[in-house]
Every structure is written in structure tokens, then in C-alpha cells.
## 1
Amino acid sequence: MNQLQALFGGTFDPVHYGHLKPVEALANQIGLSRVIIMPNNVPPHRAQPEASSQQRKKMVELAIADKPLFTLDERELRRDTPSYTAQTLQEWREEQGAQRQLAFIIGQDSLLTFPTWHHYESILDNCHLIVCRRPGYPLTMEQESHQQWLEAHLTTNPEDLHVLPAGRIYLAETPWFNISATLIRERLEHGEKCDDLLPESVMAYINEQGLYR
Ligand code: ATP
């Protein structure tokens, strides 16, 4: 039985096809039993999402309603303090046990900033890192030490993700989607259509709530 589960964190302000489609392709390519979408609680010193936590959660629920691959995890939204990915993955590992194969999914842009994340090295102690392609970002790190870190953990064999509980970085060959939540917010602000960028049910909710106007 396929045991590999993956967590997919982000702001999801709003969730869009650039989140969903690469991950669906990834699940087919490498075999993922479950992808858990986890909207984050944004730290006070960072730009706050335009939609509330409840609205971001609702949009994810609508987007995944007919997609059994995905589930939603509300743990970061329920906290009243911002949480670090390293801490959340430590908790998840404790819940799942030492042997379970776990992964964290990020886009290429997030790989570039990953070494600046709090306790980034400890994240790989608890999970694999799976990187989806995103247009406009290089696949090499700017700093030599970060590139060395990347190469030390890199695998080109997805089987490793199924055999080992954690510790590998896999650069997946997922399709490119030139979509960002920023682009969607900007388009809506200018009264432009976004129907090809996110699920219809999410768009209907955005209209109903008058979001991003
Ligand atoms: P914003 O434009 O508000 O910064 P975003 O579209 O980048 O938002 P996030 O919620 O910040 O979306 O992203 C969550 C995760 O999804 C990140 O790991 C990010 O790299 C990844 N991601 C977002 N859009 C894409 C895309 N088009 N292709 C691949 N990965 C993506």
C-alpha cells in the first residue's frame, strides 16, 4: 500500500489552479496517498492576507470538495500565534510515528527562500521536500552553501520518497502554471475575469463575499 503522505502549506489568498494542478500531476507521477492542504497563520510583521482565515479556509474547502486526493488541516489557522513550518512538521512527525513516509510540498520560488526559514535544516529531519515547477524561478540556489545543502539531499529517484521516512529533496517534473494569488487579486481589483485561474466554486464565493475588490 502506498504510504507517502504530503503536507502543502501556504497562504492560499486565494487558492488557485497553480496550487492544485501541479500537485495533482505530482500525485499521479510519484504516487501520493494524500495531500493535506494547510493554510497558515500569517505572522504580524508580514503583509496580512486580504481574506480572513475563515474565508481562506472556506475557499480551500470549496476547491477540494470534489477532489478526494486532498484534505484540509486547520491546525495553523486555529492557533492564535504564527507557527513555524519546522514546528508544525515536528508535531506531524510525532503524530505519525518515526517510520511513516512524510513529505512537504513547495513551489520552486519557495525552494529559493527555504534556507532562510526558521530551523530549515530540521524540516528535512521530519520529512522529504518535494518541489513543484513554477515559471520564472531558477532551480539553483544563489549562495554556494545553500546549493551544497540542496545537492547533499537531492534525489532523482522518487522511489526514495516511498522507502525512506524523510531527508530527501525531489525536484518534480510537474507542468508549469503561470498563476499566483497576487495576479488574481490584482486582476479582480481591476474588475478583470479570472475564470481560467481558479475553480468556479471559489470564484463564486469570492463574488458572494465581495473579496479582492
Ligand atoms: P502570493 O501571490 O499571494 O504570494 P502564491 O500564489 O505564491 O501567493 P502561496 O499560498 O503563497 O501562493 O503558495 C503556497 C505554495 O504554493 C508555495 O510553496 C508556492 O511556492 C506554491 N505555489 C503557488 N503558486 C504556484 C504555481 N503557480 N506553481 C507552482 N507552485 C506554486
Note: The chain has a mean pLDDT of 95.
## 2
Amino acid sequence: MNKVLIIGAGGVSNVVVHKCAALPEVFGQIILASRTKSKCDIIAKSVNEKFGVEILTEQLDADQTANTVALIKKHSPKLVINVALPYQDLVIMDACLETGVDYLDTANYEPKDEAKFEYKWQWAYQDKFKEAGLMALLGSGFDPGVTNMFCAYAQKHLFDEIHTIDIVDCNGGDHGKAFATNFNPEINIREITARGRYWEDGEWKSTDPLAVKQDFDFPGVGERKMYLMYHEEMESLCQNIKGLKRIRFWMTFGEEYLTHLRVIQNLGLNRIDEVDYKGQKIVPLEFLKRLLPDPGSLAANYTGKTSIGCVIEGLKDGKKVRKFIYNICDHQETYKEVGSQAVSYTTGVPAMIGAKMILEGHWKKEGVYNMEQLDPDLFMDDLNKYGLPWHVEEWSSSVE
Ligand code: NDP
């Protein structure tokens, strides 16, 4: 029987736990651990009501390797699914190495005091995981995650050569709040306020934050303005997609959201360094997170859809081809199914499928892997089976 330890009990975790519990033949026993145990208990209760499955819950501060090692030893899982925050990635990877357990996450490691979005720290674990005969699967969410798989699938089946990739990400939903982020506010605001970057002809080029924009007609949503920004999956894709000349990432934002963001920046509330307040050290962005709605709480009133995919250009049989591979996901449907909004759902489902691929042996390898380094076929089949159906279309207009 496969036992898994899931760390973190936020919006994404709620989806992962529900989806794993619905497949007892793959995930025989689930232990859910997080900093605040009561949040694990709420998820466990919902899973029990829906599927009659018992989830064991534990308190864990995964900033401490010793605690994490002790918890892994107590339960001896086959795999640890890390859906806590990117700050915990390295501690959890260390704990997996010490206890001989495979590892999976959905976001790259971030140092608390610097916004980097780089894989270098986790890639440095390559030899250690290889030598231990263990696997670390990085970025098994939607973007990174499914977008990497779309590219791997295109490389395997749709193109002889891929020249350009534009990843386009639209949340066309409405949560009815003046300002809220769809996943962890600290990570989200760090990402969006960073300088834009894209990769072209072998080098990184940068732009001012959200300075480059254009309209795009998103299937299921309609025309929206999308902004060029940096996103972590580009770092591995530019190395693993052969013949690639350019890769960019675009995300949509509404005017209201951007106005709030501008004010937050102007006031310095997005700072991630410590400031002194009445003799106490506080990090403004951590404080802001306290004030903003919990992304999970948006789910009940969320309407509309997400529409995310990859516009890919290249050659097939000597001819120029442009394809769009994408998924559309409906906030209300995902709420009905697992009590989460679509941004958590589109991240949690691929985390479950990535874990399933490892546990069933299809992807069981030694070392540290990004998603596109693995065979996409079974994963893509499972996206269709487990709630994230995808489509491929000839795409008439290029992304300027
Ligand atoms: P949330 O903030 O909702 O949840 C994070 C959870 O981690 C909380 O339960 C939190 O506990 C727990 N946690 C934080 N620190 C620790 C710690 N030291 N020890 C144990 N548990 C801890 O985040 P999300 O669910 O929105 O996101 C989860 C992950 O998914 C993030 O890494 C995010 O970047 C990633 N993500 C990836 C996407 C993708 O497409 N690849 C898209 C969206 C998110 P507490 O409740 O006590 O704060």
C-alpha cells in the first residue's frame, strides 16, 4: 500500500488531498501535516464526508529539518508531496534525502529575503538524489507543471522543431473582492512586481515590471490584456526544448488589480526586507498577507473561468506550424467538486497526477527532474481523466 505525506494545508493542498483520497488504489494512506494542524483537520473532515476516507493529520513546522525528518520516520511514506510554501523546499528535500523518500513540489525554492524564482538551489541536489537512488520532481502544478507537459507533448507529437513558445495565463474569474490574490499573496506579489524577463537567442532579456502588454483572445474567456512577466518554468524549458529560439510568459490582470498593486508598491507594502516597527521587526509583505483575504476563502463566490496554455510555433514536415494547447477550468465547477477555486484546482490536480506517475513507476527515476524531462503521454491522459481536459488547435494569429 502506498503511503504519502502531504505537507501544507492551504488552497492547493485541499485539492491535492481530495484528489488523492479519491484514488485509494494509488494513494492507500494519506498523512497531512502543516504548521497549523486545525487547517489539516478541516481538510480531513471534508475528505471523510465526501469519500469516507480517514486522513491522519499532524502538526509540522517544515522550516526545521529535524522535525520534518522525525515526522517522515514516524510514518515512513513512499513519497512526500510538498504543497507548503517555496521557502520550505530545501528543508523538505534534505529531510527526504535523510530518510530515503521521493519528493515532489509545485514551486521552486525561494529564499525568504530575496525574490529570485530560480532553480539553481534545487538543481544543486542532482547528485545527492541520484546517489541516494531517489527522485525529486520539481514544479508539478499548472504553471510550472502542465505548461511544461504541453511543451513536452508538442515536442514529442506535434513538431519536428519548436522555435517559439508563448505561455499565456488568464484568470477570467471574478471573486467580488476589490483586491485579493488567487494563491499565497506573498509569493504572488513577489512574482508580479519583479522585472519582466524572457529568453531569446540564448540569452535573458529584461523589461520593467508589467511594461509590455497586448490583447489575446482566450478560449472560454474572450479578449483580455496580458502582460509579459518572468515565470520559473522558462528556466528549464529553454534548456530542455531542442532548437528553441524564444520563450515568453504572459499573464492577464484587470485595471482594478493593477491600480491596487501600484498603490501597494508606492507605499512599500511589497517590501520583503525587515523594517523596525515600535521596536519589533516586521516584513511589510508578510504583514500585508495578514490583511488580504485567504485565497481559499474566495472559492465560494468565485465565478468565471481560467484559460491557460502554450502558443507554440515551429516546423512539422518542413512546413511552418502554429498550435495552441490549452485548458479551460471553471471556478464554480471546481468549488462544487472539492470546495476550491480554479487556481488551486489547476495546481492541485497536476500535483496528484505527478505523484501518481511516480508511485505507479511510470516516472520513477533517480535525480532531480523538471516535468518536461519526463514522458508526457500518461500524464496528459490523466489530465483528461481527472478534471483538466486539454485541447490542441491550429492557431491563426501569432503572439506579437
Ligand atoms: P497557502 O498559503 O494557501 O498554503 C500554504 C500552506 O503551507 C499553509 O497551510 C501554511 O500553513 C503551510 N506552511 C507555511 N509554512 C509552513 C511551514 N514552515 N511548515 C509547515 N507548513 C507551512 O498557499 P497555496 O496553497 O496557494 O500554495 C501552495 C504552494 O503551491 C505554494 O508553494 C505556491 O507557490 C504553489 N503554487 C503553484 C502553482 C503552480 O501552478 N505551479 C500555482 C499556485 C500555487 P499556515 O496555514 O500555518 O500558514
Note: The chain has a mean pLDDT of 96.
